[in-house]
What does this fold into?
Amino acid sequence: MSLIIKKAKKLIGRVRVPGDKSVSHRAVMFGGIAKGITEVENFLTGEDCLSTVRCFKAMGVEVEETGPTSLRVLGKGLMGLEEPGEVLDVGNSGTTMRLMLGILAGQPFFAALTGDDSIRRRPMGRVTEPLRQMGAEIWGRQQGKFAPLAIRGGNLRAMEYNSPVASAQVKSALLLAGLYAHGVTVVEEPEKSRDHTERMLRYLGARVDVDGNRVSIHGKPELTGKKITVPGDISSAAFFLVAGSIIPDSEIILENVGVNPTRDGIIEVLQNMGADLQLVNLREVNCEPVADIIVRSSSLRGTEIGGALIPRLIDEIPVLAVAAAMATGETVIKDAEELKVKESNRIATVVKELSKFGVAIEELPDGMRIKGGKTLTGAVCESYHDHRIAMAMAVAGLSAQGETEIKDPQCIDISFPGFAETLASLQK
Ligand code: S3P
It folds into this structure.
């Protein structure tokens, strides 16, 4: 079955995007190793987060569904997890695999981990290497660089680690392992990546100190379960921020969107491109800033995206490329090599798929160059089983003449169940 997208006349209405994927994963994981109950509201019931729930259930954590998007996690405490009797299958979720490795590094038991074709191609050495340095035993393909992996943890040493990549998954895995080590574990990264781990661990009772791009965590804290309300996912809102900007006569109100400053690069870039975005009703829920965002159509101009901005919008680059295609002038995206090791090689897949619409787009070693302003023609797109590619191409389809077909759209459920219905509800 394919997703068929027709050129949109205008997009009007209110949208409540699903809960943030990063925060949902962490609520289950950290709730599972805290003492007591963690009630999670607005949990993302996408495939990736459900993989996290299954893995933690396999380690003895009870997770009850208390509503369509709410969960109750019965925490086992830092040392309460049980050796899983089955292989932990993370599906398509890099966050599940990398963060769970950090927690498993502290457990005195054996666990085996695997995932789908894409996960088994993604680099795991970036977490297995430093976790070994802290004392975990890890086995896997190519000396532990690729899944399937096996780990036996316990007796960790605190460490100071200078990460070569700005990656929240690497930083989080090491901070989680740091919970199990005596003393202070420090992670420094070249640019600041998303800080949901730091915020949530602190909220649950850990001592986390932040100094620029350097984060320290004190080992052996007492974590206590609490209520966690998950903000709407800005990475899901991104598709509507771009769609509302590029489709004439549109006005979309996106309610309850997480606007954490380590995640809001898309707002900054779209505003630099001339987008009409208004943030209202700014508030904070469990240490995460949230706002409603009003987007109205506007004429966009090309821009340059690189440096410290990249980790703040890394998951939004596929849909920003669509915005660039509809903008006047040239857009250059650089310093984004990390795109090559996402769910698909997102430099290659964005360039290949957007070219099919007639977009003048060129692959660069660390990004892409887009000459905007051409009229797009409907295309038949592959999703590469990559949710964000499927949704970005659907947004391109809204601006293209005729009809666009997105093949294999089921992967959208990884992060945004109900995307097609939400989009249809806005088309007036
Ligand atoms: C995530 C971190 C980012 C991001 C991913 C979710 C997280 O990955 O792309 O979608 O929840 O920590 P990296 O850590 O590989 O940059």
About this structure: The chain has two domains: 2-19+231-426, 21-229. The first helix runs from residue 21 to 33. The two ends are 25 Å apart (CA to CA). Residues 22, 95, 167-169, 172, 193-194, 314-315, 338 surround shikimate-3-phosphate (CB under 6 Å).
